[in-house]
Design brief:
single chain; 403 residues; alpha/beta; 7-stranded mixed sheet; 5-stranded parallel sheet
């Protein structure tokens, strides 16, 4: 039998965004605030990142940063429940859950989806070959090394050359694994040249994985260059990194409108979805930003949630915000009347040198912004939202393009 109860705010996901939202909400007297986390421990992705660079000054490791967030949420008065999965919706603001204490149905005045992101596995990347042992995603590798202390292998290839790829490289070295190469389809690494050079690992650019070799255990990977040339690189471990997508399954089950570009819930500048009372924030909206960015969004969504709990109306219409190629997506991706500007996050599909971002609606130019330096795929590209007040609520979609 399913036990039924109510809370004021239900946060799904105990990563940086969800926990920061809980700290702000519980600490400001928003009522009963509860955070659900399906993993055995709260803290999100930083729990598995044993390198530094976390926290306000970048001095904390990932696990320590996660512990501090959990402690802050509990100290503010929020309930943080790990090992509890939200399995579906029984109403617009009611979630069915399962966990150590059985089945529950929790109804809230506001729901915050902070479900995070996941890496696309080898199968979703359509890499042919058998299913040998020794194939990991970054998250699987970090858990195997840092949590379960498992034997990994002796020689590895890392697929990807973005920041998370170098985190995988660090985990492999911690496990005593030789790294044969980092391989990427891009023309260069998506990190600074200094960081790429400091890794002291061969970087193969313009290369894709054409096939995994081996049966019971991986024996190598077949690599293919853009010109069609192939080579086999011997290894017993391969780690597929990056290529994150929002974990949108719960949102989809609840009928929450998804954005075609980000593949996460479509949100406005206050992180409101098209479903009244449902907010979405963090890497579950746009995959994937640094933990400090996700935590900052958690603080900002708390302000919007408090406004909703205080009787603020829910906007009934919105103007879509769309990114034109070579841009892949933009978030937030809905604008409602009276929206505040804030900041928009974008991704590009190709390297852009000092691009000019142009915002238009119905052939009317709303804003231009030059971005200094080179914008790289899988890295954040940021656009000021100072133009939001110029949008015609009755007009067509707002389009962001490279001028």
């Amino acid at each position: 039998m399913r036990r039924q109860r109510s809370v004021d705010v239900l946060v799904v996901g105990a990563g940086p965004a969800g926990l920061a939202a809980a700290v702000s909400l519980a600490g400001s007297g928003a009522g009963t605030v509860e955070v659900l986390e399906r993993e055995a421990r709260a803290g999100g992705m930083p729990r598995h990142c044993h390198h530094g660079g976390f926290g306000r000054w970048g001095a904390a490791t990932g696990p320590r940063y996660a512990e501090e967030l959990v402690e802050a949420a509990l100290g503010a008065g929020a309930a943080v429940r790990a090992g509890v999965s939200a399995t579906g919706w029984s109403g617009p603001l009611s979630l069915d859950t399962t966990g150590p204490h059985g089945l529950e149905r929790i109804t809230a005045r506001a729901v915050v989806l902070a479900t995070g992101a996941r890496e696309r596995p080898r199968t979703a990347r359509l890499v042919p070959g058998s299913r040998p042992a020794g194939v990991f995603s970054t998250g699987e590798l970090q858990q195997a090394v840092h949590v379960y202390r498992q034997e990994i292998g002796t020689r590895a290839v890392v697929v990807g050359a973005e920041p998370v790829s170098y985190a995988a490289l660090s985990a492999l070295r911690r496990a005593g694994v030789e790294v044969a190469a980092l391989v990427t389809e891009e023309a260069r690494a998506q990190v600074s040249r200094g960081r790429a050079a400091a890794a002291r690992v061969p970087l193969l650019t313009g290369v894709s994985v054409a096939e995994l070799l081996g049966r019971e255990r991986l024996s190598g990977v077949r690599l293919r260059r853009h010109d069609g040339r192939e080579r086999v690189l011997a290894c017993d471990t391969v780690v597929f990194t990056g290529d994150f997508i929002p974990d949108h399954e719960l949102a989809r089950r609840g009928g929450v409108l998804l954005d075609a570009g980000t593949r996460g819930p479509a949100v406005d500048t206050s992180f409101r979805t098209a479903s009244p009372g449902v907010f979405a924030v963090g890497s579950g909206v746009h995959a994937v930003e640094p933990a400090r960015v996700a935590a900052g969004e958690g603080v900002r969504v708390a302000h919007a949630v408090r406004g909703h709990l205080g009787g603020g109306g829910w906007p009934c219409g919105a103007v879509p915000v769309v990114a034109d190629a070579p841009l892949r997506w933009v978030a937030p991706n809905r604008l409602v009347p009276g929206a505040r500007g804030g900041r928009f996050v974008l991704r590009t599909a190709e390297a852009l040198v000092c691009p000019v971002l142009v915002v238009r609606q119905d052939r009317r130019c709303l804003y231009r912004q030059r971005v200094l330096g080179t914008a790289l795929p899988n890295r954040g590209l940021y656009l000021s939202g100072s133009w939001a007040g110029k949008v015609d609520a009755g007009g067509g979609p707002v389009r962001v393009a490279v001028g």
